[in-house]
Amino acid sequence: MARNHHSKTVTAKMKFSELAAQWILSVSHGIKESTLAHYHYTLERYLLPVFGGDSLSALNEQRLEQGILQVISAANGSHKPLGTSSSRECLTMLRRICKYAAHLHLMRSMEIFVKLPRMEAKQTKPFSAQEQTALRDFVLAAPTPRKVGLLLQMQLGLRIGEVCGLQWGDFDFKSGILTVQRTVSRIYCGTGCTKIVVQTPKTKSSGREIPIPHDLAALLRKLRGNASPDTWFLSGSTERPVEPRCYRKSIRGYLRRAGVRRVHPHALRHTFATTCLQSGCD
């Protein structure tokens, strides 16, 4: 009886921040470093400022629902109001933490229901045939690996992190195949610090072999020169890749100089997907 009373006392005193730390430790095995870093960022940036100091005994459906609405609306002014995607991430994480606590009998099972913001109808239009021609002409006028990276996104469908993760050894000019096997990203590592990580692509299906068009393969072969297989494609160095943030800046400059719309670099990959659909590709 005394032991049961002690357990209830410990649970009553336990803070949400302690529970969250325990939960994130429980899910940290078997997930990518970038995913774990994103979990930490979401917790520290959004959930802990609102719920961190709450004791578990004080949490009920009303508090959880009001709190997550504070997170979404940025009531404390620490960030901008969240869009649909970020709101859903925060709500999902809060639900997972509460489910974990209920599993450990630290608190009762609770359902959290809130209305998420409506998704804004934002859709970047793919580049038109004229814009694609203008981009290709710009690249071919004075080709460099960074410029050719535009074609790898627009013609082969690579993500920007995947282009940053390419090494010359990934290009097999004999078979005409490009192997996508790594991606570069900058991740959050706590207390406002970030770092660059190189890891396997976004999903299992993202690691893939892609046929290289003959004209693009010929251009790449000339650009390679005597570069070793472990030389990073964009940076020309064996030591450090170019990170996506820096490459996005380069891409914006290239789009401006090519005389096409200044859009998010993802429009290049979106153009590839649209072209595939129009031509009947899978």
UniProtKB/TrEMBL annotation:
CDD domains hit by this protein: INT_ICEBs1_C_like (cd01189)
Keyword annotations: DNA integration, DNA recombination, DNA-binding
A GO biological process held by the record: DNA integration
SUPFAM superfamilies for the chain: DNA breaking-rejoining enzymes (SSF56349)
GO MF annotations in UniProt: DNA binding
Pfam families to which the protein is assigned, alphabetical: Phage_int_SAM_3, Phage_integrase
Domain annotation Tyr recombinase: ranges: 122-282
Assigned protein family: Belongs to the 'phage' integrase family.
Function summary: Site-specific tyrosine recombinase, which acts by catalyzing the cutting and rejoining of the recombining DNA molecules.
Protein name: Site-specific integrase
